[in-house]
Amino acid sequence: MELRGEAICGSEERSDALVRVRPARSLTVRISSKTGPMYEDRIREVIAEALRELGVSGAEVEVREQGAYDHVIRARLLCALQRAGGGREPFLRPRPIACARGGSPRVRLRRSRLYVPGNNARVLAFVDTFAPDCVVLDLEDSVPPGEKDAARFLVREVLTAMDFGDTEVWVRINPLPRGGLEDLEVVLLGRPHGVCLPKVESPAEVAELAGLLYELEGRYGIPWMVWIMPVIESPKGVLAAPEIAAASERVTCLAFGAEDYAAETGCERSWEALLWARSRIVAAAAAAGIQASDTVFPDIEDEEGLIEETRRAKALGFDGKGAIHPLQIEPIHRALAPAPEELEWARGVVAAAGEAERKGLGAVAYRGKMVDRPVLLRAKRILEMARALGMEVGDAA
Amino acid sequence: MPRNAVGREIPGEVGGRPVRPFQGAFATVPEGRKAAPPLKTLRPGEGKVLPSLEEAIRRVGLSDGMTISFHHAFRDGDLLVLRVVETCARLGIKDLRLFPTALFPCHEPLIRYIEEGVVTRIEGSMNGPVGAFVSRGGKLREPAVLRSHGGRWRAIECGEVHIDVAFIAAPTADPYGNANGMWGPSACGPISFAVADSWYADHVVVVTDNLVPYPALPIEIEQGYVDHVVTVDRVGDPGGIATGTLRITRSPTQLRIAKLAADAVIAAGLVREGMGFQAGAGGISLAATDFIAKEMARRGVRAAFAIGGVTMYLADMLKEGLVGAILDGQAFDARAVEFLREHPRHQIITPGFYADYNSRGCATYMLDFAFLGGTEVDLDFNVNVNTHSDGQLLHGIGGHQDVAAGAKVTVITIPTIRGRIPTIRESVTTVTTPGEVVDLIVTERGIAVNPRRPDLAEDLRRAGLPVRSLEEMRAEAERLVGVAKKPVFGDEIVALIQWRDGTVIDVVRKVVGWE
Fold it and tell me: Residue B238: is its pLDDT beyond 60?
């Protein structure tokens, strides 16, 4: 690969690296490391390996890093090389990922979806430790237009290098016509479990994404189906929610984004004003047999407000809620956990239904109220959630 | 070379002085009597005010080889150390032993005086450039000696360190030598670090920029111990007290650590009516204290007392009635100084009251829990506060040892990775505080419980907190960042790290290269 000009990528923020590349006859690498000699040899190896992979034999590479991990340095270098005229194809070769990430089941706990800015090396340095149910590495709103390419590489390398344990890993791409396509091509190599598609307004957008995912899964040898989470955040999107939810078998969850919806509708960001949109999204998801995840709660300081809004969302039927700070995860999980009285009720309902079935009775009542199929389903759902949370459920159901 | 109780090789003597190896947190039984200063008198009508520092230095007969002492209540805003050393240099005095409670980055110009032989020995904490300079080795005549706050008090009290002249920066003083740090244009909070210096030094010089009529109240430094009072234009910069760490952290990782630390203390049942705690000043400690404060408010329980470094956050807890009293050894921000001046449930304490091993009980022994930091921890729960993984000596001990030894539950809060460098080591670069007095190590990846505390492990597990082994967390971090190259240490010892009882828990050796 020949470089055509000088290029630079990254920053001198903590945990990041600033990489500059220039065309040259031979290879020279200069490193200035925050940790002195502690990692210099290793950084040299990382650079040499990337240059070898791309067949770069003439370049001047300068790295100034602030405690960046190997994969961050690699991401910054790759992006700088691409910016220096490296083209597209050479950067799309599959590499094995470091951890044993497998596919994720269609139905699982998705109580929290934590958005993390995709070009922020400092926050990404600890992203494997936040432990939400779903982490969403963001390429959209949190990344300025000029850094989309840098974020793509960084997110891909984070996905490749980091072990997220039980957390389901998602990437929020840009809308398909505005960079989403390029996003997919790069980040799918990191094998995320799913893709969040923002500002969805029609089932066609979901269908288009599903087609692209199908194609890339084949090309990159991803042995599982990559899920789609459409984010509904406009009046049009809310109106089309039922069709969006049913647009592809890949859609496992509908997410609500209140900020844009409120802005476009001209409504307040109050519970009452958003109630109809929320209700419609929950109904659309339920009708399609998928999950629904509520919008983020924007005030990091207000834990009580977060818990209150999460409880209300749960009451409406939401399965999860968005988070913009790791400290919001635990309160969300707490608010979504079945309350003791709920659990007791569910246990009673299931036991009564079992009893009735054994006795061959058609109709059954619990605490004086009729238990029909939907009531039984609701009770079973509560018990499932409780069991998934490791709560004591007893031998009911 | 014999090994001490934490497995470190300790020489039998250093600079002709015998070295006692560390044998356990409470192994030493003190013997003998306290040191005593010379008897002196003053007649009625005789004054103490002198026109200049130079005059005071002449009067007390400060000469080559003597020991001069200072307090660090101005932290990075100290002006007196350099001023005295400069004056000594000008007067041709050399070979001084510097005995400050702590040095800060502002003292970087001292390096010149070390190179010129004006200062040849340092016993005291070194935060920043002077420490880095000392760890490069070869410049001080003897290894530096680092002590905890309590350890320094003990060393003076038992005569291990004899102070020839104590220079005490006083934001307010009267002509008879009574002095305090609570008032005046340079008010910095308590100057009680200097109390032992005033009691035991041969000569005591109070230096002030705010000379007030007799008597200056409150009296922290007493007239009966003071030989001379010198006025200067400016005694210190209180703006240097808060050195940037005194905000509740915004970092998600640090907040997560703080939350886990607070949850652990809550799970252990320690947040209850009448408790006592130490409020740290680091970003994580402050955040953890804030989480505890919220829990206290929620449950309606009050702490009997808290020990400072005092910040505005702690002052607010006192104001809101969450804390019954503050025992204050040091102020960490100017607003705290202001608020604490007239608050009746605020008591200035000395390091002796706070932390002295050779005392019949110190305040840290009354602590239910404390949040402390560190640069490294190891699989034996030892904590390093002094050096970085590259071997550089960059921090003092502060009250770390004293608090860890005293608190019922000592919680070390530390991220597993700091600027790519993993902090959980197989063995710390330097042992400052031994694992036997450390109960919990809290990182963003979970909480490690010292195997000596199965009771705590049980409490934490029952509360659903992520109890994990240090080995596991270390492996996770190293998988991400890789194994760092280690420095190679030579034989030359650049500093002794004393345990609070005067034994040596570790030595710092000069870095000679990299593996």
Answer: yes
- The pLDDT value recorded for residue B2 is 87
Tokens of A197: 């598609």
pLDDT digits (tens, 9 = 90+) for B330-345: 888 877 888 878 788 9
Average pLDDT on A143-148 reads: 97
Residue with tokens 């194809």: A89
Q: What percent of chain B has pLDDT over 70?
A: 99
Peptide bond into B218 cis (omega under 30): yes
The mean pLDDT of B444-459, rounded to a whole number, is 97
Q: What is the pLDDT of residue A397?
A: 45
The count of domains in chain B is: 2
- Of A103, A137, A90, nearest in space to A217 by CA: A103
From chain A, the residues in CB contact with B256 under 8 A are 129-130, 326-327
HSE-up (13 A, CA, CB side) for residue A58: 9
Enumerate the residues of chain B whose CB falls inside 8 A of the CB of residue A163.
476, 479
Q: Specify the DSSP class assigned to residue B77.
A: G
Retrieve residue B188's tokens: 């910095």
CB B498 within 8 A of CB B150: no
Residue with the bigger pLDDT between B406 and B309: it is B406
Q: Could you tell me the residue range of the domain that residue B159 belongs to?
A: 48-239
Q: What is the mean pLDDT of residues B109-137?
A: 94
DSSP of A28-51, one letter per residue? EEEEEETTGGGTHHHHHHHHHHHH
Report ipTM (2 d.p.). 0.86
Which residue, B138, B209, B163, is CA-closest to B70? B163
Angle CA(B239)–CA(B245)–CA(B246) in degrees, nearest 5? 70
* Domain match, B306 and B168 both: no
Write out pLDDT tens, residues B70-81: 999 999 999 999
B21 occurs within a structural domain: no
Domain region containing A154:
112-336
Provide the token pair at B456.
């705590």
Instruction: Give just the sign of the alpha carbon dihedral A267, A268, A273, A276.
Output: positive
- Vertex B257: Cα angle to B256 and B260 (nearest 5): 85
Which helix or strand (DSSP H or E) is residue A52 part of?
helix A40-54
Q: Using omega within 30 degrees of 0 as the cis cutoff, is the peptide bond preceding B215 cis?
A: yes
CA-based nearest distance B510→chain A, Å: 17
Are residues B214 and B264 both part of a single domain? Answer: no
Asked if residue B321 has pLDDT above 70, the reply is: yes
Q: Are residues B120 and B231 in the same domain?
A: yes
Residue B251 distance to chain A (closest CA, Å): 8
Q: From the CA of A292, how many Å to the nearest CA of chain B?
A: 26
